[in-house]
Amino acid sequence: MNKPSPYNDTAKRIFDFNISDFDSLAIDIFRFQYENNSIYRQFADALGVDPGQVEGVVQIPFLPVSFFKTHRVQSTPFEPQMIFESSGTTQTINSKHYVKDIAIYTESFLKGFAQFYGDPEGWCIIGLLPSYLERQNSSLVMMVDELIRQSKHYRSGFYLYEYDQLADHLQQLERQQQKTLLIGVTFALLDFAEKYPMPLKHTIVMETGGMKGRKTEMTRQEVHSLLKTAFHLPCIHSEYGMTELLSQSYSKGDGMFRSPPWMKVLLRNEDDPLEILSPSGKGTNGVVNIIDLANIYSCSFIATDDAGKLYPDGSFEILGRIDNSDIRGCSLMAV
What we know:
Number of strands: 15
Strand content: 15-25%
Shape: globular
Largest sheet: 7 strands, mixed
Mean pLDDT: 88
Distance between the termini: 47 Å
Low-confidence stretches: 1-7, 326-335
Number of helices: 10
Structural class: alpha/beta
Strand order of the largest sheet: 5-4-6-7-8-9-10
Helix content: 25-40%
Order of helices and strands: HHHEHEEHEHHEHEHEHEEEEEEEE
């Protein structure tokens, strides 16, 4: 018999807990998901993990992100309110994330955004996400759409390839000294920067990753250098998220990401994926594991295909993709 969720479908504990309680809450969620997620339980059993013996997050098994391509990863039986689907090419299998309660996702991205950028109201938020708008079931589009709605600015909105109109509106916003966020997929930001370079003093440019074979692959530093030059900006911001997660990390420059309190990045040894590495003072390289407590009804413990560097304060960099991993829409750039 499946155990009921201890969170009363509100996920209140996830977003309101004290940061010092992270490990104990993560272990509670691990045991809940072990009991209520047959795919995750089979995976943990195959590794010989005894939930009763798990006393720290480094002992929790991390489900390979590829399982979201091949299995229905969900905790407790439910009919999803939304199925998020990853971007990809005709040669790849897309991940699917079955979301029981879309309110949990909304609370996660709104509280995460507020932590790093404040209340969306007062911003003008512009989404330059053509490849995502051209398909359905994008978690990124849903997030930006709600941020646009909450900004309440008459110029907030999405753009496909109307670069001339976007340039005109940005120039108007700059003259008004309006605080603006231009969040875009990498290839579109590069296209726009090439055609309409302009000085931006009141606008943050944020890339979400995503080259999708549209341009020659570039490092994050190369992308940011081009965008900084085109827009006369001291830094470029970044968002790190994926279909398989319900939370995001943000970088305010130099590709150094930080996460909200209910999300934590760990590193595993590429040669021994069960070994969790301890970050050193100058940063430790490894493969990224993510704990996203908002994933209460899927799996909160994900072993990604991203290489990264983790620092003792919890901040991290994304260094690219490990060998033999599928290329997907986000986090395509190597460093």
